[in-house]
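Working notes for the structural subgroup meeting. M.R. asked for a predicted model of this chain before we commit to crystallization trials. I am recording the input and output together here so anyone reviewing the notebook later can reproduce the run.

Input as submitted:
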Amino acid sequence: MNAVVVRLCAAFGRSAAVAAGIAMAGATIGAGFTAVSVQAATIDTIAKQAILVDLTSNTVLFEKNADERMAPSSMSKIMTAYMVFEAIKGGRLTLESTLPVSERAWRMQGSKMFVELHNNIKVDDLLKGMIVQSGNDACIVLAEGLAGSEQSFAEQATKRARELGLKNSNFANATGWPDPNHYMTARDLALLAERLIKDFPEFYKYDSIREFKYHGITQGNRNPLLYRNMNVDGLKTGHTDAGGYGLTASGEREGRRLLLVVNGLPSMQSRADESARLIEWGFREFASYTLYKDGETIEQVPVWLGEQETVPVTVPQNTSVTMARADRPGMKVALVSSAPVAAPIKKGDTVGKLVITAPGFPGKEVPVVAAQDVPKAGFVGRAFAAAKYLVFGNSL
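Returned structure, recorded in token form:
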């Protein structure tokens, strides 16, 4: 059997060729978050740590010190929100559930929702107080309600973070209050935000609420990009002396969703301006291109000793790539398969891969699978195929 490469123009017309030695490409940067780093267009930032990801194709467009441990400050509340959303989805809480306010929560300093001592507050209000107003007091009420104490909650959050693939994160509290044992990386924050958006779309709406009034006090959402008419709909700001000014933000345009994490900026104004500049650059300089949809037939691959001579192949999920717009004319897509594929073949069996290349693009590989079953041929069919091979050889 030969390694057969069929050159495709990804649904734009195709022709056949034979080649070998296709190099592997792509890198896994977290559980469920695989990306190919693209640096075709250049940009820099004054942020100490940063990462910009196109979630449509899970492509890293830009990164700077993305694996460096940092103080995430109130961006840590994305993890607290994730834990609360998970508890609601699992039936442990509802939005109408009420949780008591302890003296510890009431006395908590920093940004506040201004909870009342010994009051019982609805989870819905606490979520708004935490996400919109960045209330440290709301965080502690939620943490104590879920785990009994903030310390126990932090331990549970760290364990859950590991399960989500956050390899360089450790939580000492629920708020992001400065602690040497409380840290994350920009990459981990991006992965966490991506999981929250995709795992809890019904709750992500909290992140776009612009203001919330509680206890007679109206406070605006601290995410500056919500007010800039640039399609940003989340997630969370952060600031401590140790971490500087930070922001985890996401927005969607024309079906593309970008996710940005920046930290270590010197001021609120630089946080707003630098975040806007990086997101606009990502939307302007790059585009996502859908190559194949789940279930769409890509090609017919030859079958050896099967009831039919070929099997249609497809991709197990929608396949798209993100690259610099200037690189798109040079994009090439190749279907690589060891053909003919021996029968029997089950629907969903991996029978090859797509290799996607372009100038300035490091490459991406996507598995291709059989779109239907191909049973093994009967005795007569196998005998005919063997005779044909003896007479004509491998004609591929």
